[in-house]
Write a structure and sequence with these properties.
Blueprint (H helix, E strand, L loop, with lengths): L2 H6 L4 H7 L43 H11 L6 E3 L2 H9 L7 E5 L4 H12 L4 E5 L4 H8 L11 E5 L11 H11 L2 E5 L17 E5 L13 E4 L3 H14 L5 H8 L1 H16 L22
Parallel strand pairs: 2-3, 2-4, 4-5, 5-6
Antiparallel strand pairs: 1-7, 6-7
Helix pairs in contact: 2-3, 2-10, 4-5, 4-8, 6-7
This protein binds pyridoxal-5'-phosphate.
Length: 295
């Protein structure tokens, strides 16, 4: 364990935001992660030996953010950074097998809905749109009765939804989805991991439009996924590598930088100071994001 890992072991979430992914606290190491601008890396010539190889496979500048996000979301594996939230949405939707049913909030973020609708129109998925605050209706859509009705392959949660601020019962719906054989992706953009940790509530994958609260300064467009499941992470990493929705190193460096990384902490402090945000998880009903903290 490096000095920085030892130092970070027992820190609060607000401090992890600033400390995780930093270079080792050793003589002459920089305090901030360096920005690495290189498309290609020297190596052994075999990616099987763990070579970085090429800039579409990985970049050291992504590592601090991916490590910090995993720690904040309570994941056992590093996160995956993408060029935008919608690139992350596209990668997550690629987990659905051909023709599989997707249960998704009627009021999901508009771009997510457009993408899912287009996949449905082309026959790649069967889309079942539901009121995500209606737990019984979502359960019925996951495992419908009747002849020919198939259980869902994926439950998509977004809680609170953008912009209607619908709140899902993440734990109950995740349990129902798993019972139906579906995997669960939760878009945690509006909560941030400092308010809600969907992996701890059973979700398989957590998604962020990093563009919003996680970056916090309206200066980058980025997305991220995080999971503790090695098979799911491998599939997502393969999809990111082959479809090419990778983060630019400069944007990744900005998002992981100390000034930006404090923004989620500031957000959560403000949410906790608001009686509506006092609980660990947003209470049922309307929860308002903190004005000015993100767009
Ligand atoms: C909840 C949510 N998910 C996903 C996205 C898409 O993210 P991006 O704009 O970074 O592609 C947004 C963007 O507003 C969002 O609000």
């Amino acid at each position: 364990m490096s000095l920085s890992e030892q130092h970070a072991a027992d820190l609060s979430a607000e401090t992890v935001v600033v400390a995780a992914g930093r270079p080792p606290r050793e003589r002459d190491m920089p305090v901030n992660p360096p920005l690495v601008l290189s498309s290609t890396y020297f190596g052994t010539g075999s990616l099987d030996t763990g070579d970085r190889g090429y800039g579409r496979y990985s970049n050291p500048t992504w590592d601090p953010f991916e490590e910090a996000l995993a720690r904040l979301e309570g994941a056992e594996l590093p996160g995956l950074l993408y060029s935008s939230g919608l690139a992350a949405v596209s990668s997550a939707l690629s987990l659905i097998p051909a023709g599989g049913a997707l249960v998704m909030p009627t009021h999901s973020y508009s771009g997510t809905l457009v993408m899912a609708s287009e996949l449905a129109q082309k026959g790649f998925v069967e889309l079942r749109a539901v009121d995500i605050a209606d737990t019984a209706a979502v359960k019925a859509a996951l495992a419908p009765g009747g002849p020919g009705a198939r259980p869902a392959a994926m439950l998509w949660l977004e809680s609170p939804t953008n912009p209607m601020l619908g709140i899902a019962d993440v734990a109950a719906l995740t349990e129902a989805a798993h019972a139906a054989g579906a995997i669960v992706v939760t878009d945690n953009t509006f909560s941030t991991p400092l308010v809600q940790q969907p992996l701890a509530l059973g979700s398989d994958v957590v998604l962020h439009s990093v563009t919003k609260y996680l970056a916090g300064h309206s200066d980058v467009v980025l997305g991220a996924l995080v999971t503790s499941n090695p098979d799911i992470r491998s599939a997502l990493l393969h999809n990111r590598t082959i479809h090419g929705g990778i983060a630019g190193p400069f944007e990744a460096w900005l998002a992981a930088g100390p000034a930006d990384a404090r923004a989620p902490g500031g957000t959560v402090t403000a949410v906790r100071n608001d009686p509506r945000g006092a609980a660990q998880q947003p209470p049922p009903g309307r929860v308002h994001p903190v004005p000015g903290a993100a767009r």
